[in-house]
Amino acid sequence: MTHPRLAFLASPAPSAQQALETLSARYGQHPPEQADILVALGGDGFMLQTLHRHAQLGKPVFGMKLGTVGFLMNHQREADLHERIAGAEPTKLRPLEMTAQTESGIEVQSLAYNEVSLLRQTRQAAQLRIDLNGQTRVDEMTGDGVLVATPAGSTAYNYSAHGPILPLASNTIALTPIAPYRPRRWRGAILKADTEVRFTVLDPYKRPVSATADSHEFRGVTEVTIRESRDRTVTLLFDPEHNLEERIFSEQFVF
Questions:
Q1: Does some domain include residue 147?
Q2: Same domain, 43 and 141
Q3: Does residue 158 lie within any of the structural domains?
Q4: Do both 19 and 126 map to the same domain?
Q5: Strands (E) located in 36-188
Q6: Domain match, 85 and 112 both
Q7: How many Å is the maximal CA-CA distance in the chain?
Q8: Phi/psi of residue 232, each to 5°?
Q9: 29-71 pLDDT, tens per residue?
């Protein structure tokens, strides 16, 4: 029986580095470009780094938790890795595409598999206008910021900001304010995944705002446009008992 070629990638954490050495010796090690499967060893942060660095290869990623948070990871276990990968359930994730204009006139772009967040840079609250598909829905939102989250990312920063948990196959995204002062009673919205969301910073010099796509931060933005990617996907592999869709659903019943 021919087993898939594996590329083990590890976070700098000592436990992940030790697992990298052990698993590479047991199962072999290939460069990501020549592998069939990427195996990410770390936490959710390292999984996101792996997706950002290697998604263009189009290789499925099997993660094992060797970090603080492991929502996107499987349990760490050295034995039976080939069998686990053969029986794993694939889950396709579609990232958000962010395009931002900065005060200096530069246009920057990035992907986000969890969320794009806009945050105030100083003690002054951010003031933002929110347009959906070209129509203004919030003339002026004042607060710490706002974010747009994918279903996979809805249990992360979005949830801590009191945003909704979205089922993985719901074809939706979450628009969630962060500590809003005005409109005071606005709690955000659940949008169709193909909605184009545009944020305009109303006073970028007195009230500067940064935009962060997962861990990639851009400071001094003046306008940010976000849409779900139409042609990019990544495939994560999960043990059947560690099904991501079921775990996201179950998060709604954690008290």
A1: yes
A2: no
A3: yes
A4: no
A5: 37-42, 61-65, 89-93, 96-102, 107-112, 115-120, 126-132, 135-149, 172-182
A6: no
A7: 65
A8: -115, 135
A9: 999 999 999 999 999 999 999 999 999 999 999 999 997 778 8
Q: Are 84 and 242 in contact (CB under 8 A)?
A: no
Task: Report the chain's C-alpha Rg in angstroms.
Answer: 20
In 3D space, the residue among 73, 146, 150 whose CA is nearest the CA of residue 111 turns out to be 150
Nearest partner of 8 among 89, 64, 49, judged by Cα = 64
pLDDT digits (tens, 9 = 90+) for 169-220: 899 999 999 999 999 889 999 999 999 999 999 999 999 999 999 989 999 9
List residues with catalytic annotation. 44
Q: Answer yes or no: do 88 and 129 share one domain.
A: no
Residue with token string 């560690």:
242
State the total domains in the chain: 2
Residue 132 domain flag: yes
First to last CA, the chain: 46
| SS3 category, 84 | helix
Nearest to 237 by CA among 32, 24, 140, 93: 93
Cα 46 to Cα 12, 30, 49, 154, 216: the distances in Å are: 9, 19, 5, 18, 13
Q: What is the per-residue pLDDT for 242?
A: 78
Same domain, 30 and 62: yes
HSE-CB at 217 with a 13 A cutoff on CA atoms is: 8
- The residue range of the domain holding 102 is 96-228
CATH number of the domain residue 143 falls in:
2.60.200.30
In a domain, 1, yes or no: no
